[in-house]
Design a protein that fits this description.
The chain is of the alpha/beta class and 162 residues long. It has one domain: Rossmann fold (3-Layer(aba) Sandwich). The protein contains six helices and five strands; from the N terminus they run E-H-E-H-E-H-E-H-E-H-H. It has a five-stranded parallel β-sheet with strand order 2-1-3-4-5, with helices on both faces. The protein starts with a strand and ends in an 11-residue tail after the last helix. The model has no long low-confidence stretch (mean pLDDT 97). The structure holds 5-O-phosphono-beta-D-ribofuranose (RP5).
Length: 162
């Protein structure tokens, strides 16, 4: 059963949001990816967010850029945890996306990550961490992923230099 829904406002967000999908794939977390625009496809957004819990999704990762209303509007229509990824915009480097996503009114939370690739990676990891609280096997995979990351950090920044 699909557990995480990764939605984004445009196909142009995929280059960023693919990193969330990559992390979930690496951790063997069933997920789906969809283009759902708050502005261009509002009915699609309504259908997706309001039906997400009934379909068995447990977490939604939502990425958008510019006037990035997708995560907040999705959160307004589901009680599932929504993780927001501010996609880097051309005009304002993603500051517009970040502020659009992070400044939610009290009562409708969106867990907002960093702008761009790092945010997408961390949204995937956080989604996995949420699921891992009730899935011991996934918790083991997540801990192994973290240990491998630690193991992969070099001690010497330039080993080939004389
Ligand atoms: C937002 O507008 C999308 O999330 C995207 O980041 C941005 C630009 O979309 P496109 O014009 O590239 O489709 O809705």
């Amino acid at each position: 059963m699909t557990l995480v829904g990764i939605i984004m406002g445009s196909t142009s967000d995929w280059e960023t949001m693919r990193h969330a999908a990559d992390v979930l794939a690496a951790l063997d977390v069933p997920h789906e990816t969809r283009v759902v625009s708050a502005h261009r496809t509002p009915q699609r957004l309504y259908d997706y967010a309001s039906g997400a819990a009934a379909r068995g999704l447990k977490v939604i990762v939502a990425g958008a850029g510019g006037a990035a209303h997708l995560p907040g509007m999705a959160a307004s229509m589901t009680h599932l945890p929504v993780l927001g990824v501010p996609v880097e915009s051309k005009a304002l480097k993603g500051m517009d996306s970040l502020l659009s996503i992070v400044q939610m009114p009290g009562g409708i939370p969106v867990g907002t990550l960093a702008i761009g690739k790092a945010g997408a990676i961390n949204a995937g990891l956080l989604a996995a961490a949420i699921l891992a609280t009730s899935d011991a096997a996934l918790s083991q995979r997540l801990q192994a992923w973290r240990a491998a990351q630690t193991e992969g950090v070099a001690h010497d920044p330039a080993p080939a230099d004389p």
